[in-house]
Amino acid sequence: MAERLSEQEIEARLAGSKWTREGEEIVREYKLEDFASAIAFVNRVAEVAEEANHHPDILVHGWNKVRLSLINHSAGGLTEADFELAGKVDGLT
Amino acid sequence: MAERLSEQEIEARLAGSKWTREGEEIVREYKLEDFASAIAFVNRVAEVAEEANHHPDILVHGWNKVRLSLINHSAGGLTEADFELAGKVDGLT
Questions:
Q1: Burial bucket for residue B2 (CB in 10 Å: 0-12, 13-18, 19+)
Q2: Which of A64, B52, B70, B76 is deepest in the core (most CB within 10 A)?
Q3: CATH number of domain containing B40
Q4: Domain presence at residue A2
Q5: What pLDDT score was predicted for residue A2?
Q6: Model ipTM?
């Protein structure tokens, strides 16, 4: 099973990142052109998530915004896999 | 602008429906086979939403669940359009 990162490791990975800590998760909010663009983005994220076999929570809201939340439920916290997926998602925009 | 429904009208439309009231919104939660099925469902909902030009909030969570929330933001509450879209989404499953 993946090992949970320490608070220090999490802070180091968040430094200079566009993701922020929210409770036990890391989140990033995106503003797209419109609803169709938001859904297209969700599909690109889904593809990367399936490849990684790690699935963020995805919220499409306010018709053009997408909020992604990452945590490793089986590890009960944040692991390297969360930051790897965050990095891959960053590569999409 | 669309007219807000009265409490009585909302209750009548929710009776026997799979949608429930949550604050000012109506919500429905779906459990799908897996993440890919959840994303496929989101795409079907998005198509219906675009046709109706009315966009629910969509939350994909726990890798196989989708939660839809409907409200008419410009009317500041629930309107006939919300229940029309709810009915169309019901037709997808």
A1: middle
A2: B70
A3: 3.30.1360.20
A4: no
A5: 81
A6: 0.95
pTM of the predicted protein model: 0.95
Interface residue of A34, A39, A64, A72 to substitute, partner B, most B CBs within 10 Å = A39
| Those residues with Cβ within 8 angstroms of residue A29's Cβ, 6 or more apart along the chain or in another chain | A65, A66, A67, A68
Per-position DSSP letters for A35-47, written without gaps between them: HHHHHHHHHHHHH
From B55, B61, B62, residue closest to A35, measured CB to CB: B55
Residue B2 lies in a domain: no
Cβ–Cβ contacts within 10 Å for residue A60, how many?
27
A25-31 and A65-70 as β-strands: parallel, antiparallel, unpaired?
Answer: antiparallel
**8 Å CB contact between A68 and A45:** yes
pLDDT at residue A1 greater than cutoff 80: no
Q: Is residue B1 in a domain?
A: no
Q: With beta carbons less than 8 A apart as the criterion, state whether B82 and B70 touch.
A: yes
Of the candidates A39, A50, A61, which has its C-beta nearest B57's C-beta?
A: A61
CA angle at A76 for the pair B69 and B27, rounded to the nearest 5°: 10
Contact B42 A59 (CB under 8 A): no
- Secondary structure of residue B63 in the 3-state scheme: coil
- The count of domains in chain B is 1
